[in-house]
Design brief:
With 143 residues, the chain is mostly helical. The protein is built from 4 helices and 3 strands. Helices cover 78% and strands 10% of the residues. It has a 3-stranded antiparallel sheet with strand order 1-3-2. The longest helix has 88 residues, at 47-134.
Protein backbone atom coordinates (compact mmCIF):
# COMPACT_ATOMS: atom_id res chain seq x y z
CA UNK A 1 0.00 0.00 0.00
CA UNK A 2 1.31 3.40 -0.94
CA UNK A 3 0.14 5.76 1.77
CA UNK A 4 1.00 9.42 1.89
CA UNK A 5 0.19 12.45 3.94
CA UNK A 6 -1.77 14.87 1.76
CA UNK A 7 -3.57 18.10 2.38
CA UNK A 8 -7.25 18.07 1.60
CA UNK A 9 -6.73 20.68 -1.10
CA UNK A 10 -3.95 18.74 -2.87
CA UNK A 11 -5.93 15.51 -2.90
CA UNK A 12 -9.11 17.30 -3.95
CA UNK A 13 -7.26 18.86 -6.88
CA UNK A 14 -5.79 15.54 -8.01
CA UNK A 15 -9.14 13.71 -7.71
CA UNK A 16 -11.18 16.54 -9.23
CA UNK A 17 -13.31 16.89 -6.13
CA UNK A 18 -14.12 19.68 -3.73
CA UNK A 19 -11.89 20.15 -0.70
CA UNK A 20 -14.81 19.68 1.69
CA UNK A 21 -15.75 16.37 0.02
CA UNK A 22 -12.21 15.05 0.56
CA UNK A 23 -12.29 16.18 4.19
CA UNK A 24 -15.62 14.44 4.78
CA UNK A 25 -14.31 11.29 3.09
CA UNK A 26 -11.31 11.29 5.46
CA UNK A 27 -13.65 11.63 8.43
CA UNK A 28 -15.96 8.80 7.24
CA UNK A 29 -13.04 6.47 6.43
CA UNK A 30 -11.46 7.29 9.81
CA UNK A 31 -8.21 8.19 8.12
CA UNK A 32 -5.38 9.36 10.34
CA UNK A 33 -5.33 13.16 10.48
CA UNK A 34 -2.91 15.71 11.83
CA UNK A 35 -1.86 19.30 11.41
CA UNK A 36 1.40 20.02 9.63
CA UNK A 37 3.99 22.57 10.70
CA UNK A 38 2.44 25.00 8.24
CA UNK A 39 -0.87 24.77 10.10
CA UNK A 40 -2.69 22.96 7.28
CA UNK A 41 -4.61 19.76 8.02
CA UNK A 42 -3.27 16.59 6.47
CA UNK A 43 -4.64 13.07 6.32
CA UNK A 44 -3.00 9.73 5.57
CA UNK A 45 -4.51 8.50 2.30
CA UNK A 46 -3.94 5.25 0.44
CA UNK A 47 -2.82 6.66 -2.93
CA UNK A 48 -3.57 3.42 -4.81
CA UNK A 49 -7.21 3.60 -3.69
CA UNK A 50 -7.34 7.30 -4.56
CA UNK A 51 -5.86 6.63 -8.01
CA UNK A 52 -8.25 3.71 -8.55
CA UNK A 53 -11.18 5.94 -7.61
CA UNK A 54 -9.89 8.66 -9.93
CA UNK A 55 -9.52 6.14 -12.76
CA UNK A 56 -13.04 4.80 -12.06
CA UNK A 57 -14.39 8.35 -12.04
CA UNK A 58 -12.70 9.08 -15.39
CA UNK A 59 -14.13 5.89 -16.91
CA UNK A 60 -17.58 6.74 -15.59
CA UNK A 61 -17.34 10.22 -17.09
CA UNK A 62 -16.19 8.77 -20.41
CA UNK A 63 -19.09 6.30 -20.38
CA UNK A 64 -21.58 9.05 -19.63
CA UNK A 65 -20.12 11.26 -22.32
CA UNK A 66 -20.17 8.33 -24.78
CA UNK A 67 -23.80 7.55 -23.97
CA UNK A 68 -24.74 11.21 -24.31
CA UNK A 69 -22.94 11.44 -27.65
CA UNK A 70 -24.63 8.27 -28.91
CA UNK A 71 -28.03 9.66 -27.90
CA UNK A 72 -27.21 12.93 -29.63
CA UNK A 73 -26.07 11.08 -32.77
CA UNK A 74 -29.33 9.10 -32.78
CA UNK A 75 -31.31 12.33 -32.44
CA UNK A 76 -29.34 13.91 -35.28
CA UNK A 77 -29.92 10.85 -37.48
CA UNK A 78 -33.64 11.17 -36.79
CA UNK A 79 -33.54 14.85 -37.74
CA UNK A 80 -31.64 13.99 -40.94
CA UNK A 81 -34.20 11.30 -41.82
CA UNK A 82 -37.09 13.72 -41.25
CA UNK A 83 -35.29 16.34 -43.34
CA UNK A 84 -34.80 13.85 -46.17
CA UNK A 85 -38.51 13.00 -46.11
CA UNK A 86 -39.42 16.69 -46.13
CA UNK A 87 -36.91 17.27 -48.94
CA UNK A 88 -38.49 14.49 -51.00
CA UNK A 89 -41.97 15.96 -50.41
CA UNK A 90 -40.71 19.41 -51.46
CA UNK A 91 -39.09 17.91 -54.57
CA UNK A 92 -42.39 16.27 -55.52
CA UNK A 93 -44.23 19.55 -54.90
CA UNK A 94 -41.73 21.38 -57.12
CA UNK A 95 -42.12 18.78 -59.87
CA UNK A 96 -45.92 19.12 -59.68
CA UNK A 97 -45.62 22.91 -59.79
CA UNK A 98 -43.27 22.66 -62.81
CA UNK A 99 -45.77 20.42 -64.61
CA UNK A 100 -48.54 22.91 -63.84
CA UNK A 101 -46.38 25.79 -65.11
CA UNK A 102 -45.70 23.84 -68.30
CA UNK A 103 -49.44 23.29 -68.78
CA UNK A 104 -50.13 26.97 -68.13
CA UNK A 105 -47.44 28.00 -70.62
CA UNK A 106 -48.96 25.67 -73.22
CA UNK A 107 -52.41 27.19 -72.52
CA UNK A 108 -50.93 30.67 -72.80
CA UNK A 109 -49.33 29.82 -76.16
CA UNK A 110 -52.65 28.41 -77.38
CA UNK A 111 -54.48 31.54 -76.20
CA UNK A 112 -51.92 33.76 -77.94
CA UNK A 113 -52.43 31.83 -81.18
CA UNK A 114 -56.21 32.09 -80.77
CA UNK A 115 -55.93 35.83 -80.09
CA UNK A 116 -53.79 36.21 -83.21
CA UNK A 117 -56.40 34.40 -85.29
CA UNK A 118 -59.17 36.48 -83.70
CA UNK A 119 -57.27 39.71 -84.38
CA UNK A 120 -56.77 38.68 -88.02
CA UNK A 121 -60.48 37.87 -88.36
CA UNK A 122 -61.40 41.15 -86.68
CA UNK A 123 -59.12 43.09 -89.04
CA UNK A 124 -60.70 41.30 -92.01
CA UNK A 125 -64.23 42.07 -90.75
CA UNK A 126 -63.27 45.67 -90.05
CA UNK A 127 -61.92 46.03 -93.62
CA UNK A 128 -65.15 44.51 -95.05
CA UNK A 129 -67.24 46.87 -92.94
CA UNK A 130 -65.21 49.89 -94.06
CA UNK A 131 -65.61 48.77 -97.70
CA UNK A 132 -69.36 48.36 -97.13
CA UNK A 133 -69.59 51.85 -95.62
CA UNK A 134 -67.54 53.35 -98.42
CA UNK A 135 -70.19 52.40 -101.00
CA UNK A 136 -73.04 54.82 -101.50
CA UNK A 137 -76.26 54.16 -99.63
CA UNK A 138 -78.29 53.30 -102.70
CA UNK A 139 -75.82 50.55 -103.67
CA UNK A 140 -75.88 49.18 -100.15
CA UNK A 141 -79.69 49.21 -100.32
CA UNK A 142 -79.82 47.49 -103.68
CA UNK A 143 -77.58 44.64 -102.60
Amino acid sequence: MAEAWCTYGDLAESLGMRREAVRQRAIRARERRQFGTDGRARAMFDMEVAEAREHFHEQLCEQRIGAALEAHIAALREVVAKSEVRGELRRQEVEAANRRVDMLVADLIAMAANMSETATALDRLHAEFEAYRARPWWRRWAD
